[in-house]
Amino acid sequence: SIVLMCCCCINVITAPISIVLGIVSLATHRGGKGMSIAGIILSALSILLLFMCYQSTEVFWRNSDQIMQDYYQLIENADTVFPAYEKDGTVPDYLQKYYEGEYAEALDKFGVTFDDVMDYLDQMYQQGEFEALQSALGSTGGTGTSSSAPKSSFTGVELAY
What we know:
Strand content: under 5%
Distance between the termini: 26 Å
Number of helices: 9
Number of strands: 0
Oligomer: single chain
Low-confidence stretches: 140-161
Order of helices and strands: HHHHHHHHH
Helix content: over 70%
Structural class: mainly alpha
Mean pLDDT: 79
């Protein structure tokens, strides 16, 4: 279950099964008592770890559509956003919300500020990595609001971290 937690949270399915099988093994006195106990403990631990991971990133999951829309807009406007950010640290109005409230608190859990995220994205922009993203967005219809644009893709979020 702990190994499968890293694979799309499959431990949500495997952990309860392994807990039940471990209990059945203990109840039927088949032997392998240590393995049964270890399986039960590790499965319970994997569920606890998954819950903790979800709790720490819940804000991002709940607001993923809005975050992705902002990211698409940032990519589209990169040629104006990043020079202004480099010059005096300003960001467009649609990104101001990341400096305060639940977004700032969620980033703070990881010891990161939105300026850290912008610095990383600015570095990507300076290295020319946004050109491919901009051309890909051009083929999806712009802001990511067209039906062909991926609404739940976390590619952009992964790049930001």
